[in-house]
Design goal:
alpha/beta; phosphomethylpyrimidine kinase activity; PM/HMP-P_kinase-1; binds (4-amino-2-methylpyrimidin-5-yl)methyl dihydrogen phosphate; transferase; EC 2.7.4.7; 3-stranded antiparallel sheet; 9 strands; 19% strand; single chain; 6-stranded mixed sheet; 264 residues; HMP/HMP-P_kinase_dom; binds adenosine-5'-triphosphate
Protein backbone atom coordinates (compact mmCIF):
# COMPACT_ATOMS: atom_id res chain seq x y z
CA UNK A 1 0.00 0.00 0.00
CA UNK A 2 1.19 3.52 -0.79
CA UNK A 3 1.64 5.95 2.09
CA UNK A 4 1.16 9.68 2.55
CA UNK A 5 2.10 11.90 5.47
CA UNK A 6 0.42 15.15 6.45
CA UNK A 7 2.34 17.71 8.52
CA UNK A 8 -0.32 20.22 9.56
CA UNK A 9 -2.65 21.53 12.23
CA UNK A 10 -5.50 19.63 13.86
CA UNK A 11 -9.03 20.99 13.27
CA UNK A 12 -11.22 19.86 16.16
CA UNK A 13 -14.34 20.08 13.97
CA UNK A 14 -12.87 17.69 11.40
CA UNK A 15 -13.46 19.78 8.27
CA UNK A 16 -9.95 21.05 7.54
CA UNK A 17 -6.35 20.38 8.60
CA UNK A 18 -5.05 16.95 9.60
CA UNK A 19 -8.57 15.49 9.74
CA UNK A 20 -9.46 16.52 6.17
CA UNK A 21 -6.08 15.26 4.98
CA UNK A 22 -6.47 11.81 6.56
CA UNK A 23 -10.02 11.46 5.16
CA UNK A 24 -8.75 12.40 1.71
CA UNK A 25 -5.87 9.89 1.90
CA UNK A 26 -8.29 7.14 2.96
CA UNK A 27 -10.73 7.98 0.16
CA UNK A 28 -7.82 7.52 -2.28
CA UNK A 29 -6.82 4.13 -0.85
CA UNK A 30 -3.56 5.55 0.50
CA UNK A 31 -2.36 4.83 4.05
CA UNK A 32 -2.37 8.15 5.91
CA UNK A 33 0.01 9.27 8.67
CA UNK A 34 0.25 12.58 10.53
CA UNK A 35 2.67 14.92 12.23
CA UNK A 36 0.64 17.39 14.27
CA UNK A 37 2.29 20.83 14.24
CA UNK A 38 -0.50 22.76 16.04
CA UNK A 39 -3.82 22.03 17.71
CA UNK A 40 -6.64 24.42 16.87
CA UNK A 41 -9.93 24.72 18.72
CA UNK A 42 -12.34 25.45 15.88
CA UNK A 43 -15.74 24.64 14.53
CA UNK A 44 -17.77 25.57 11.45
CA UNK A 45 -18.06 29.15 12.72
CA UNK A 46 -14.47 29.99 13.57
CA UNK A 47 -11.22 29.34 15.42
CA UNK A 48 -11.20 30.11 19.15
CA UNK A 49 -7.68 29.03 20.16
CA UNK A 50 -4.43 27.67 18.75
CA UNK A 51 -1.64 25.90 20.57
CA UNK A 52 1.55 25.08 18.68
CA UNK A 53 3.38 21.84 19.34
CA UNK A 54 7.00 22.28 20.44
CA UNK A 55 9.72 21.93 17.78
CA UNK A 56 10.99 18.96 19.85
CA UNK A 57 7.80 16.90 19.47
CA UNK A 58 7.47 17.83 15.79
CA UNK A 59 11.05 16.64 15.30
CA UNK A 60 10.37 13.40 17.21
CA UNK A 61 7.20 12.65 15.22
CA UNK A 62 9.11 13.12 11.94
CA UNK A 63 11.95 10.85 13.09
CA UNK A 64 9.50 8.21 14.31
CA UNK A 65 7.90 8.00 10.88
CA UNK A 66 10.87 8.40 8.56
CA UNK A 67 13.22 6.02 10.43
CA UNK A 68 10.67 3.22 10.12
CA UNK A 69 8.32 3.75 7.18
CA UNK A 70 8.72 4.57 3.48
CA UNK A 71 6.76 7.76 2.83
CA UNK A 72 5.53 8.02 -0.76
CA UNK A 73 4.30 11.61 -0.50
CA UNK A 74 4.25 14.43 2.05
CA UNK A 75 1.64 17.17 2.29
CA UNK A 76 2.40 20.21 4.45
CA UNK A 77 -0.44 22.42 5.67
CA UNK A 78 -0.68 24.79 8.65
CA UNK A 79 2.72 25.31 10.28
CA UNK A 80 2.37 28.54 12.19
CA UNK A 81 5.85 29.55 13.35
CA UNK A 82 9.45 29.84 12.18
CA UNK A 83 10.95 27.30 14.58
CA UNK A 84 8.51 24.59 13.48
CA UNK A 85 9.13 25.42 9.81
CA UNK A 86 12.90 25.13 10.34
CA UNK A 87 12.62 21.70 12.02
CA UNK A 88 10.44 20.42 9.19
CA UNK A 89 12.79 21.80 6.52
CA UNK A 90 15.82 20.16 8.19
CA UNK A 91 14.09 16.78 8.34
CA UNK A 92 12.91 16.99 4.73
CA UNK A 93 16.49 17.74 3.70
CA UNK A 94 17.80 14.69 5.51
CA UNK A 95 15.02 12.18 4.65
CA UNK A 96 14.34 13.53 1.12
CA UNK A 97 10.82 12.19 0.42
CA UNK A 98 10.07 11.90 -3.31
CA UNK A 99 6.98 14.15 -3.36
CA UNK A 100 6.31 17.25 -1.24
CA UNK A 101 3.07 19.22 -1.68
CA UNK A 102 3.12 22.50 0.27
CA UNK A 103 -0.19 24.24 1.01
CA UNK A 104 0.95 27.57 2.53
CA UNK A 105 -1.98 27.96 4.93
CA UNK A 106 -2.16 31.53 6.32
CA UNK A 107 -5.71 32.47 7.33
CA UNK A 108 -8.76 30.30 8.01
CA UNK A 109 -11.95 30.89 5.98
CA UNK A 110 -13.37 32.40 9.14
CA UNK A 111 -10.54 34.99 9.18
CA UNK A 112 -8.23 33.68 11.95
CA UNK A 113 -4.46 34.03 11.35
CA UNK A 114 -2.88 30.58 11.16
CA UNK A 115 0.64 31.78 10.20
CA UNK A 116 2.55 34.16 12.47
CA UNK A 117 3.59 37.26 10.47
CA UNK A 118 7.33 36.75 11.08
CA UNK A 119 7.12 33.13 9.82
CA UNK A 120 6.31 34.15 6.23
CA UNK A 121 9.97 34.80 5.44
CA UNK A 122 11.04 31.40 6.82
CA UNK A 123 8.32 29.70 4.76
CA UNK A 124 9.75 31.39 1.66
CA UNK A 125 13.42 30.80 2.41
CA UNK A 126 13.33 27.33 4.00
CA UNK A 127 10.22 25.44 2.85
CA UNK A 128 9.23 26.65 -0.62
CA UNK A 129 12.58 25.53 -2.13
CA UNK A 130 11.92 21.96 -0.90
CA UNK A 131 8.45 21.67 -2.44
CA UNK A 132 7.55 19.81 -5.61
CA UNK A 133 4.38 21.88 -5.81
CA UNK A 134 3.15 24.84 -3.74
CA UNK A 135 -0.63 25.43 -3.71
CA UNK A 136 -1.50 28.98 -2.55
CA UNK A 137 -4.98 30.42 -2.89
CA UNK A 138 -5.34 33.95 -4.30
CA UNK A 139 -4.78 35.67 -0.96
CA UNK A 140 -1.79 33.49 -0.01
CA UNK A 141 -0.21 34.06 -3.45
CA UNK A 142 -0.67 37.82 -2.95
CA UNK A 143 0.93 37.74 0.51
CA UNK A 144 3.87 35.60 -0.65
CA UNK A 145 4.62 37.85 -3.63
CA UNK A 146 3.47 41.25 -2.29
CA UNK A 147 1.40 41.55 -5.48
CA UNK A 148 -2.19 42.56 -6.06
CA UNK A 149 -3.93 39.62 -7.71
CA UNK A 150 -7.35 40.07 -9.21
CA UNK A 151 -7.76 37.77 -12.21
CA UNK A 152 -6.11 35.16 -14.35
CA UNK A 153 -3.24 37.35 -15.50
CA UNK A 154 -2.32 38.19 -11.89
CA UNK A 155 -2.47 34.49 -10.96
CA UNK A 156 -0.06 33.67 -13.79
CA UNK A 157 2.40 36.37 -12.70
CA UNK A 158 2.22 35.20 -9.07
CA UNK A 159 2.76 31.54 -10.08
CA UNK A 160 5.94 32.54 -11.90
CA UNK A 161 7.15 34.71 -8.99
CA UNK A 162 6.63 31.90 -6.45
CA UNK A 163 8.34 29.44 -8.81
CA UNK A 164 11.38 31.74 -8.71
CA UNK A 165 11.44 31.35 -4.91
CA UNK A 166 12.67 27.81 -5.62
CA UNK A 167 9.81 25.29 -5.76
CA UNK A 168 9.64 22.87 -8.69
CA UNK A 169 6.12 24.07 -9.59
CA UNK A 170 3.31 26.28 -8.30
CA UNK A 171 -0.47 25.82 -8.49
CA UNK A 172 -2.33 29.07 -7.75
CA UNK A 173 -5.91 28.14 -6.80
CA UNK A 174 -8.81 30.15 -8.08
CA UNK A 175 -11.56 29.12 -5.68
CA UNK A 176 -11.86 32.76 -4.59
CA UNK A 177 -12.17 34.18 -8.11
CA UNK A 178 -15.44 35.89 -8.96
CA UNK A 179 -15.78 33.76 -12.08
CA UNK A 180 -15.30 29.99 -12.64
CA UNK A 181 -12.67 28.44 -10.33
CA UNK A 182 -9.66 27.89 -12.58
CA UNK A 183 -6.36 26.80 -10.96
CA UNK A 184 -3.11 27.76 -12.71
CA UNK A 185 0.10 25.72 -12.67
CA UNK A 186 3.54 27.02 -13.59
CA UNK A 187 6.25 24.35 -13.87
CA UNK A 188 9.14 26.48 -15.06
CA UNK A 189 8.36 26.08 -18.73
CA UNK A 190 4.61 26.25 -19.30
CA UNK A 191 1.44 27.60 -17.74
CA UNK A 192 -1.41 25.07 -17.46
CA UNK A 193 -5.02 26.00 -16.70
CA UNK A 194 -7.18 23.50 -14.78
CA UNK A 195 -10.74 24.61 -15.22
CA UNK A 196 -13.55 23.92 -12.80
CA UNK A 197 -17.24 24.63 -12.68
CA UNK A 198 -18.33 26.75 -9.71
CA UNK A 199 -20.62 25.03 -7.22
CA UNK A 200 -22.81 27.47 -5.33
CA UNK A 201 -22.67 26.43 -1.70
CA UNK A 202 -21.54 27.97 1.59
CA UNK A 203 -20.08 24.63 2.70
CA UNK A 204 -16.46 24.88 1.60
CA UNK A 205 -14.56 24.39 4.85
CA UNK A 206 -11.32 22.56 4.06
CA UNK A 207 -11.36 22.77 0.25
CA UNK A 208 -7.70 23.78 0.08
CA UNK A 209 -6.60 21.01 2.50
CA UNK A 210 -8.62 18.49 0.52
CA UNK A 211 -7.16 19.52 -2.84
CA UNK A 212 -3.52 19.40 -1.69
CA UNK A 213 -4.02 16.02 0.02
CA UNK A 214 -5.69 14.63 -3.09
CA UNK A 215 -2.70 15.79 -5.17
CA UNK A 216 -0.31 14.17 -2.65
CA UNK A 217 -2.33 10.90 -2.72
CA UNK A 218 -2.24 10.80 -6.51
CA UNK A 219 1.51 11.48 -6.60
CA UNK A 220 2.03 8.70 -4.02
CA UNK A 221 0.15 6.37 -6.37
CA UNK A 222 2.54 7.20 -9.23
CA UNK A 223 0.51 9.67 -11.31
CA UNK A 224 2.36 12.50 -13.05
CA UNK A 225 1.83 15.99 -11.59
CA UNK A 226 -0.52 16.90 -14.45
CA UNK A 227 -2.58 13.73 -13.92
CA UNK A 228 -2.48 14.20 -10.13
CA UNK A 229 -3.92 17.73 -10.41
CA UNK A 230 -6.60 16.78 -12.97
CA UNK A 231 -7.72 13.87 -10.81
CA UNK A 232 -7.62 16.05 -7.66
CA UNK A 233 -9.81 18.68 -9.37
CA UNK A 234 -12.32 15.96 -10.18
CA UNK A 235 -12.19 14.79 -6.56
CA UNK A 236 -12.64 18.27 -5.03
CA UNK A 237 -15.54 18.95 -7.39
CA UNK A 238 -17.39 15.87 -6.08
CA UNK A 239 -16.41 16.62 -2.47
CA UNK A 240 -17.78 20.21 -2.72
CA UNK A 241 -20.86 19.14 -4.70
CA UNK A 242 -21.75 16.72 -1.92
CA UNK A 243 -20.66 18.99 0.95
CA UNK A 244 -23.22 19.37 3.68
CA UNK A 245 -24.41 21.62 6.48
CA UNK A 246 -22.91 20.83 9.84
CA UNK A 247 -23.08 23.20 12.80
CA UNK A 248 -24.10 26.80 12.29
CA UNK A 249 -21.40 27.96 9.87
CA UNK A 250 -19.36 26.78 6.91
CA UNK A 251 -19.88 23.05 6.50
CA UNK A 252 -17.22 20.56 5.33
CA UNK A 253 -16.41 18.81 2.06
CA UNK A 254 -17.69 15.24 1.71
CA UNK A 255 -15.06 12.54 1.12
CA UNK A 256 -17.26 9.49 1.25
CA UNK A 257 -20.28 10.13 -0.96
CA UNK A 258 -19.06 7.51 -3.46
CA UNK A 259 -19.62 4.81 -0.86
CA UNK A 260 -22.46 6.09 1.26
CA UNK A 261 -24.65 8.03 -1.14
CA UNK A 262 -24.87 11.62 -2.13
CA UNK A 263 -25.84 13.11 1.22
CA UNK A 264 -24.38 11.06 4.07
N1 LIG B 1 -17.34 26.83 -5.10
C1 LIG B 1 -16.46 26.08 -5.74
N2 LIG B 1 -16.83 25.30 -6.78
C2 LIG B 1 -15.96 24.52 -7.42
N3 LIG B 1 -14.65 24.43 -7.10
C3 LIG B 1 -14.19 25.19 -6.07
C4 LIG B 1 -15.07 26.04 -5.34
N4 LIG B 1 -14.35 26.65 -4.34
C5 LIG B 1 -13.09 26.19 -4.45
N5 LIG B 1 -12.98 25.33 -5.50
C6 LIG B 1 -11.79 24.58 -5.89
O1 LIG B 1 -11.32 23.97 -4.68
C7 LIG B 1 -9.90 23.99 -4.64
C8 LIG B 1 -9.44 24.75 -3.41
O2 LIG B 1 -9.47 26.13 -3.75
P1 LIG B 1 -9.58 27.34 -2.77
O3 LIG B 1 -9.18 28.54 -3.56
O4 LIG B 1 -10.93 27.32 -2.12
O5 LIG B 1 -8.49 26.97 -1.71
P2 LIG B 1 -8.26 27.53 -0.28
O6 LIG B 1 -8.77 28.93 -0.18
O7 LIG B 1 -6.84 27.28 0.05
O8 LIG B 1 -9.15 26.62 0.59
P3 LIG B 1 -9.23 26.74 2.18
O9 LIG B 1 -9.97 28.03 2.41
O10 LIG B 1 -9.97 25.55 2.57
O11 LIG B 1 -7.83 26.81 2.73
C9 LIG B 1 -9.45 24.60 -5.97
O12 LIG B 1 -9.24 23.57 -6.90
C10 LIG B 1 -10.63 25.46 -6.37
O13 LIG B 1 -10.65 25.69 -7.75
C1 LIG C 1 -5.88 23.33 11.08
C2 LIG C 1 -6.38 24.08 9.89
N1 LIG C 1 -5.71 24.00 8.73
C3 LIG C 1 -6.16 24.66 7.64
C4 LIG C 1 -7.30 25.43 7.69
C5 LIG C 1 -7.77 26.18 6.47
O1 LIG C 1 -9.04 25.76 6.04
P1 LIG C 1 -10.22 26.80 5.78
O2 LIG C 1 -9.62 27.93 4.96
O3 LIG C 1 -11.27 26.05 5.03
O4 LIG C 1 -10.67 27.34 7.10
C6 LIG C 1 -7.98 25.49 8.92
N2 LIG C 1 -9.10 26.21 9.09
N3 LIG C 1 -7.49 24.81 10.01
Amino acid sequence: MKTALTIAGSDSSGGAGIQADLKTFSAHGVFGMSVIASVTAQNTQGVTAVEDMSPKIIDAQLDAIFTDIKVDAVKIGMVSNSDAIKVIADKLKSYRPRHVVLDPVMVSKSGYDLLQPDAKQTLISDLIPLAGVVTPNLREAAVLTDMRIEGIEGMERAAKAIYHMGSASVLVKGGHLKEEPVDILYDGSKLHHYKGERIHTKNTHGTGCTLSSAIASNLAKGLTLDEAIMEAKRYIHGAIKNSFSLGGGVGPTNHFYQWFGERV
